[in-house]
Amino acid sequence: MGVLLEDRINKLKRRVDRMKENDTFFYLKTVENTSESRVLIDQKEKIMFASYNYLGLINHPKLKEAAIKAIEKYGVGTSGVRLLSGTTKVHEELEAKIAEFKGAEDAITYTSGYVTNLAAITSLYQRGDLVVIDKIDHASIIDGCILSGARYKTFLHNDMKSLEGILANSEEFVNKIVIVDGVYSMEGDVANLPEISRLAKKYNTKVMVDEAHSIGVLGKTGHGIEEYFGLKNTVDINMGTLSKTIPSVGGYIAGNKDMIDYLRHNSRPFIFSAPLPPVTAAVAKAALEVIEDEPERIENLHKNMKKFREGINSIGYNTGGSITAIVPLIIGNEKDTLNLCKMVNDEGIFICPILFPAIPKGTNRLRAHVLTNHTSQDIDKALDIFKKAGEKLGLI
């Protein structure tokens, strides 16, 4: 028996209204000075711990200059889809830069990271194929699997025995692929790429990695998960976003030239959607160049990640298996999670709660994002606020 649409809408409305009445609705806030480590929200300065601006590139002069030049040359949009009249020189330059950055033969861009995963999975895999995904892969990967019509199976998070159990019984499938997040967005841990690659070779399976949260974060120079593990050519399909560390909009797939050409002529989101505006493509290309030209940004991010993670662990919070710029403070109970969020926000930290059903029931959390432009004083103050709030609420 189905549930009336109006009832579903009203159920969510009641939950949101209840949070607003309790002053625990932390979403859809208007944020000023988004490029800084301290921002203004509701006319109050807060230390930003809810941003994807890991390398602090949003306000970088080179990116702003690239945007201005692109607008002056191309205006504010394109005249059609990429396949017809919507391809400009800057689109080609961006895709060439992405391919170079990822050590691939070619690349293709889409209008969002979400659409990119849908496009790749639905275009390359179909009924009769097998897609194997981590249980906590991003929603866009799951939706891509469902829309593709392929058989898809999930393995326990980062559990290589679980993965091998699936692959060992997959002889009937001609086309097989394992898809994982490089950095898991709710956990802050990293996919076990060396073992995934070994199993993929053993069972004649391709590998796709979503690097939304790993570009600019993983690896000594921020080139991502292969650099982090000291591997080369282990990923068949490199996916990433242009809207997190790279502060623009869109997503990309990088890989061998024949596959990319196939996507250009066969993926519906590419064929039937307007492309990235040239200005956003120019900004994304400039961001990739800055990542390579200014390695000190990655070095400082790694230093800040270590300082915050070790500090928050020493206080007594459960951060799971996080080793990256995403550091979850796993509380469990929704009420406790919201109370902690309210208390630290009141004291000067902007952070958002992640609640069921975005994550499994009973694992509600605050998700902290460490930035390269956090100062040592920012981190020390944040740790002090988290410590006092956690002790007052009896959580640590």
UniProtKB/TrEMBL annotation:
Its cofactor is pyridoxal 5'-phosphate. Keywords: Pyridoxal phosphate, Transferase. Residues 45-384 form the Aminotransferase class I/classII large domain. This is 8-amino-7-oxononanoate synthase. InterPro entries: Aminotransferase_I/II_large, AON_synthase_class-II, PyrdxlP-dep_Trfase, PyrdxlP-dep_Trfase_major, PyrdxlP-dep_Trfase_small. GO terms for molecular function: pyridoxal phosphate binding; transferase activity. SUPFAM superfamilies: PLP-dependent transferases (SSF53383).
